[in-house]
Specification:
It is a single chain. This protein has five helices and six strands. The protein is an alpha+beta fold. It has a domain of 96 residues: 2-Layer Sandwich (Signal recognition particle alu RNA binding heterodimer, srp9/1).
Length: 152
């Protein structure tokens, strides 16, 4: 099998307080440090492993619907970071205690995940999601699947 043309996605976030962001994302959320580099003039970068990456593209109607389900109003910026976690309620509490602002407590979504929304360090809005059913189970329900499934 040929290697796919894209091997990794990195979301690069500039932050004025790298130490605060590291304490939050590495030490509290639990992302592991993959690499770190320093350069001239106090230049620093730390690459955190967040597991598998996906790029979720949503049209404005879908983005509004997600905001309505998760938060009850339109609130998301054009880019929002979502982390799949094993315990949405517990992780929301831990991140709140570490300085994140909870915008919405965990709520079960129509797509069967438990989602919360937070404002977090480095100017990021986060969705934490805990899957309540497998992709295979979800794909059997109306409105879910892939574009290939809908084209048939």
């Amino acid at each position: 099998m040929d290697q796919p043309p894209v091997l990794q996605m990195r979301l690069v976030v500039e932050t004025d307080d790298l130490d605060e962001a590291l304490a939050f994302y590495r030490d509290v959320l639990g992302l592991t440090e993959q690499a770190a580099f320093t350069g001239e003039g106090d230049a620093r970068v730390v690459i955190l492993d967040a597991g598998r990456a996906t790029l979720e593209l949503a049209n404005p109607a879908q983005a509004r619907m997600i905001d309505e389900v998760e938060v009850g109003r339109r609130i998301a910026p054009p880019v929002r970071v979502a982390f799949e976690v094993t315990d949405a309620a517990g992780t929301t509490t831990r991140l709140s205690e570490a300085g994140a602002t909870v915008l919405a407590e965990p709520v079960e979504t129509p797509w069967r995940s438990l989602n919360s929304r937070l404002d977090a360090p480095a100017g990021l809005q986060l969705t934490l999601f805990q899957e309540l059913e497998s992709l295979e189970e979800r794909a059997r329900r109306p409105g879910f699947g892939t574009a290939d499934d809908r084209d048939r």
